[in-house]
Amino acid sequence: MSFVIAIDGPAGAGKSTIAKAVSKKLNSIYVDTGAMYRSIALFMIRNNVSKEDTASIAAKCKDADVTINYEGGVQNVILNGENVNGLIRTEEVGNMASVVSAVPEVRAHLLQLQRNLAASTDVVMDGRDIGTTVLPDANLKVYLTASSKVRAKRRYDELTAKGESCDIDIIEKDIIDRDHRDMTREISPLKQADDAILVDSSDMTIEEVENKIIELANAAGK
Ligand code: DC
Asked: Within 13 A of 207's CA, how many CA atoms are on the CB side?
């Protein structure tokens, strides 16, 4: 039986940083489901599909073959045979990902892939609906959040460190808009599963959050 940890929460809460670190410590595979939605978003952008054209997003997602492989413990997302890891971390793709992820056909397209990944190996999977929909029987469910101000500041620091100029107020507005879209969509909205443990990282360091989740995993039988 594999040991499965589901980490859900809003954009910028630190899910991927934490999930990556925890998976390393626990010898598990890290599965970043947001990257899968981002690769579908990239596919739609490349095909000039507009955000409003839900019918085309639903129809065309079948042509986006998404698979995952691992190289030195790093997850590669393969879109129609191409490794798109280096192309999906932009704000444009992130915003489009939030739009495509509200389309039921897109979610159905990715669900089985996500379930298969957790079927035979220990995984730490992060996303928005992992504890509620994808892996409802996960051994541990964490809902990781932080205030929108703190999340915007983290994103701002990340972008300025890369030499990109940006406006922190616009970043915070984008975060609030994305939260709203993710939490209010009809299918698999972002919400804390009834049996998930809430971790608010606003005033915690990365190490503190990591230790907290390892502690919870141990308590859950890992
Ligand atoms: O975690 P992220 O920023 O890479 O996710 C990009 C978008 O994908 C996000 O706005 C919501 C969507 N998403 C989702 O709906 N379900 C998931 N399991 C993961 C991401």
From this structure: 0
